[in-house]
């Protein structure tokens, strides 16, 4: 199958999207484990499997919020 590789986070950047209703959605992937597989690409590079979680944050305009 492969070998789990230790890693340290160099940078986790957000991708940011503005929706047509004015909502701002930010996404980033956070890796929890990385495995170097026993398989190779045609150019000889090893293949990796990354287990990650998607983190989502939103900034929603007041006029779209339901009154509590």
Summarize the structure in short:
The chain is mainly beta and 68 residues long.
Q: How many beta-strand segments?
A: 4
SSE string, helices as H and strands as E? EEEE
* Span of the ends, CA to CA: 51 Å
Shape descriptor: elongated
Model regions low in confidence, pLDDT < 50 over at least 5 residues: none
Determine the fraction of residues in helical runs and give it as a percent range: under 10%
Number of structural domains: 1
Count of helical stretches: 0
Secondary structure category: mainly beta
- What profile does the largest beta sheet have? 4 strands, antiparallel
* Structural Rg: 18 Å
What fraction strand?
Answer: over 45%
Mean pLDDT, to the nearest integer, reads 97
Keywords:
single chain; 68 residues; mainly beta; 4-stranded antiparallel β-sheet; 0% helix
Mind explaining what this structure looks like?
- The chain has one domain (2-63).
- It has no helices and 4 strands.
- The protein is an all-beta fold.
- A hairpin with a 5-residue loop joins strand 3 (24-40) and strand 4.
- Strands 1, 2, 3 and 4 form a 4-stranded antiparallel beta sheet that branches.
- The protein has strands at 2-4, 15-18, 24-40, 46-59.
- Helices cover 0% and strands 56% of the residues.
């Amino acid at each position: 199958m492969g070998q789990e590789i230790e890693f340290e986070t160099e940078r986790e950047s957000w991708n940011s999207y503005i929706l047509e209703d004015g909502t701002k959605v930010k996404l980033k992937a956070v890796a929890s484990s990385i495995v170097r597989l026993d398989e190779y690409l045609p150019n000889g590079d090893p293949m990796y499997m990354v287990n990650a979680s998607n983190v989502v944050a939103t900034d929603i305009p007041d006029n779209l919020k339901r009154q509590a």
